């Protein structure tokens, strides 16, 4: 039986672990917060006490954590993956992270007699739960071929993109495309409401035409119903777009539309909605004027208070 160490049992990781176990993989897990692994332990996953322990005695190590700094710590830190993995193990980072970090992991793995793949995913929590993720993979092609049974337990559209870091670069292209599409959905709904259209009727009309998209299907109904629960966190979307900005800047080109939308997302996070789903971008269009008005009111009150204090 193929044994897998799985690190990161959050929004995405839970469904992924359950799907691996359904395919009869033996899975041991670790997460910084044990409570987030409780359901998996009850279903038969084996709890370990550190990333090092989770990486010990397995054929594959899969990581899907939050930010590049988390990836760095999980692999290179004390009690990390590289301390626990034996030669011959394949480490697969499925976090969306920096392509440069993926190349660093690949080089270190080679040095230790390990194999490494970067394999970020698209499809959100729904894709993770259903086992229908899109998986974009970078690394050595022969290692990719050996890992296919693992990938097919997690997703459907699995593509070898090229050398180390290529999976991450493909994910950047994916997130850049989402940014424009998501913003378009927000603006379309905002326009419909401002001119007096019925939002639901508008959605049902335009969803089947040329404007139809995954982002519209997934999120316009949620925006209409004011459902901003996360299937993919806004704060993680900002992280992804920031990586795309850094990568483009390092190559001396600009992504004007992506950067404009990233700025809007940052403002939404500043409003306090970073832990909501990406559909929270709609708050930017609805609340920005309210926030400006509130700021003016606070400023006027402060000015009046100063005048009173001087009297």
Automatic annotation (TrEMBL):
Domain (6-phosphogluconate dehydrogenase NADP-binding): residue spans on this chain: 3-160
Lineage: superkingdom: Bacteria
Keyword set, alphabetical order: NAD, Oxidoreductase
Pfam families: NAD_binding_11, NAD_binding_2
Domain 3-hydroxyisobutyrate dehydrogenase-like NAD-binding residues, every copy: 165-285
InterPro entries found in the cross-reference section: 6-PGluconate_DH-like_C_sf, 6PGD_dom2, 6PGDH_NADP-bd, HIBADH-like_NADP-bd, HIBADH-related, NAD(P)-bd_dom_sf
Membrane-spanning segments: none
Protein's UniProt name: 3-hydroxyisobutyrate dehydrogenase/2-hydroxy-3-oxopropionate reductase
Species per Swiss-Prot/TrEMBL record: Ligilactobacillus ruminis
Family the UniProt entry places it in: Belongs to the HIBADH-related family.
């Amino acid at each position: 039986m193929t044994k897998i160490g799985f690190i990161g049992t959050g929004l995405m990781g839970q469904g992924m672990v359950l799907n691996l176990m359904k395919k009869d993989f033996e899975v041991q897990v670790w997460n910084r917060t044990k409570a987030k692994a409780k359901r998996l332990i009850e279903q038969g996953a084996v709890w370990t006490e550190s990333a090092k322990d989770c990486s010990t005695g397995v054929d594959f190590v899969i990581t899907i954590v939050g930010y590049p700094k988390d990836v760095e710590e999980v692999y290179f830190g004390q009690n990390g993956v590289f301390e626990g993995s034996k030669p011959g193990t394949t480490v697969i980072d499925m976090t969306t992270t920096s392509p440069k970090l993926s190349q660093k992991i690949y080089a270190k793995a080679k040095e230790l007699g390990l194999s490494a793949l970067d394999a970020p995913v698209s499809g959100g929590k729904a894709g993770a739960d259903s086992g229908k993720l899109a998986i974009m993979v970078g690394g050595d092609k022969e290692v990719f071929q050996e890992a296919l049974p693992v990938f097919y337990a997690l997703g459907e559209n699995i593509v070898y993109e090229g050398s180390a870091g290529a999976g991450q670069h493909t994910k950047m292209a994916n997130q850049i495309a989402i940014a424009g599409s998501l913003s378009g959905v927000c603006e379309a709904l905002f326009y419909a409401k401002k001119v007096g259209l019925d939002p639901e009727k508008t959605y049902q009309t335009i969803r089947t035409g040329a404007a139809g998209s995954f982002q519209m299907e997934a999120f316009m109904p949620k925006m209409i119903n004011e459902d901003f629960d996360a299937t993919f966190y806004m704060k993680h979307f900002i992280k992804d777009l920031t990586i795309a900005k850094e990568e483009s800047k390092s190559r001396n080109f600009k992504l004007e539309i992506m950067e404009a939308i990233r700025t809007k997302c940052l403002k939404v996070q500043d409003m306090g909605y970073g832990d909501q789903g990406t559909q929270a971008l709609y708050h930017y269009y609805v609340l920005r004027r309210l926030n400006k008005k509130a700021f003016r009111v606070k400023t006027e009150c402060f000015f009046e208070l100063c005048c009173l204090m001087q009297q």
